[in-house]
Amino acid sequence: MPTRAQHKTLNFIRHFIARHDCAPTLSEIAAGLGLRSKGSLHKHVQALAEAGYLKIRSGQQRGIELTRFAEQQLHSLPLLGRIAAGQPIEAIPGEDTLNLTEFLLGPDRFALRVTGDSMIDAGILDGDTVIVERRDTADDGAIVVALVDNGEATLKRLRKRGDRIELIPANTAYPPLIYPANRVQIQGVLVGQLRTYP
Amino acid sequence: MPTRAQHKTLNFIRHFIARHDCAPTLSEIAAGLGLRSKGSLHKHVQALAEAGYLKIRSGQQRGIELTRFAEQQLHSLPLLGRIAAGQPIEAIPGEDTLNLTEFLLGPDRFALRVTGDSMIDAGILDGDTVIVERRDTADDGAIVVALVDNGEATLKRLRKRGDRIELIPANTAYPPLIYPANRVQIQGVLVGQLRTYP
DNA sequence: CTTGACCGTTCTCCATTCGTTCTCTATCCT
DNA sequence: AGGATAGAGAACGAATGGAGAACGGTCAAG
């Protein structure tokens, strides 16, 4: 059971790692907690390691690691169940944790901010963030990031029509774009999407 | 767990590959990080390879590959820029990394799967996952998880009208639900949303 | 095939950062 | 009062990271 100072220290370390992907130095912890010295911090970190919250690679800089338990907690949310209009929350059997890392990350992926409303009927709004997997081919019907004439990148639904490629907005206010296949280069395929609310 | 220089190096390599689809040379990394020498860079890249983040095709030029492990171990994606209909990808100054952990996680948050199409006009589709922050009050206009008569939980936009509360679907096919305030209990406020594509 | 620019690799030297330890002091809680 | 808890400050040695130079391999153009 950690003391109050230890608790604050542990919390800061967890947030720091979540933000920076690497552990803080003692001085950074001290600065973050408003301390002017790192003398006592060393004792707290040591105590946390003995209590099993942390592992320390002794002597190395930034040598603080979270234990597996603390780490698992850091990247997951409880997945409570399904929610629908007019129905109570219904538990999802066998699935009670949502690990964001597994859910959205993967090799050759990157993120893009969406501007404009051309994909609004597909539930992609202005300001959303989409996650794209870099690929140079895509199945018919997929939503892709496509480059036209090596100049303009757009997010559209792909339709292959023989030697023509149609880039179809999900908004009836915009017309489909139709090009010969050799003018369109696929940069990636939409694999995920996320949004935050203020 | 990489050191700070290693972490910056790895991040630069990820961005470079995401943009150019080929690995950078050591000199390019050095230039990108503001270094005048590549002597130490080689050590960092080597250390990253030993730690399993990279693979190196030894001797070959541009012989750096990212591993799957790197993407899963780091909790962020390169954020390349904005994308819009008919515009090239435009870099976002000062913001080049999307940290999922920081973006969506927080204390007192949980996830729910959405079924039904009652929020479709707000870009919330059947099968989406929403992230909810547990709270018992909410601002007017927020999207909330509300419990009516302690029985039915629904995801709706909240409108306060004096001692009445309106729960408004974002779908013109459904009517607003209007209750006296004492029959409606707010369970949480929508703070995030995510979706995966097959 | 030859050539030259480019690039990975290795080495040494040096400044800085950081973990560690120590002593001394202040605060809080039975 | 007395012990537990916490912080300030200083000092030391190890780890880290960068500069610069030199060597040899790779690759594409001539």
Distance between the ends of chain A:
35 Å
The CATH H-level superfamily of the largest domain in chain A is: Umud Fragment, subunit A
Sheet with the most strands of chain A? 7 strands, antiparallel
Query: Structural class of chain A, please?
Result: alpha+beta
Q: From the structure provided, what is the oligomeric state, counting identical versus distinct chains? A: homodimer
Mean pLDDT rating of chain A: 87
Q: Strand content of the residues of chain A, in percent?
A: 35-45%
Q: What's the total count of β strands of chain A?
A: 12
Low-pLDDT runs of chain A: none
Order of helices and strands of chain A: HHHEEHEEEHEEEEEEE
> What is the class of the largest domain in chain A in the CATH system?
Mainly Beta
Structure at a glance:
Chain A is built from 5 helices and 12 strands. Chain A has helices at 4-20, 26-33, 39-50, 68-74, 100-104, and strands spanning 54-56, 64-66, 76-84, 87-90, 97-99, 109-114, 129-134, 143-148, 152-161, 164-168, 177-180, 184-196. β3 of chain A pairs parallel with β6 (109-115) of chain B.
What topology emerges from the helices and strands here?
2 copies of one chain form a homodimer.
Chain A: H1 4-20, H2 26-33, H3 39-50, E1 54-56, E2 64-66, H4 68-74, E3 76-84, E4 87-90, E5 97-99, H5 100-104, E6 109-114, E7 129-134, E8 143-148, E9 152-161, E10 164-168, E11 177-180, E12 184-196
Antiparallel strand pairs in A: 1-2, 3-4, 3-5, 6-7, 7-12, 8-9, 8-12, 9-10, 10-11
Chain B binds a DNA duplex (30 and 30 nucleotides) through residues 3-5, 25-27, 35-44, 46, 56, 58-63.
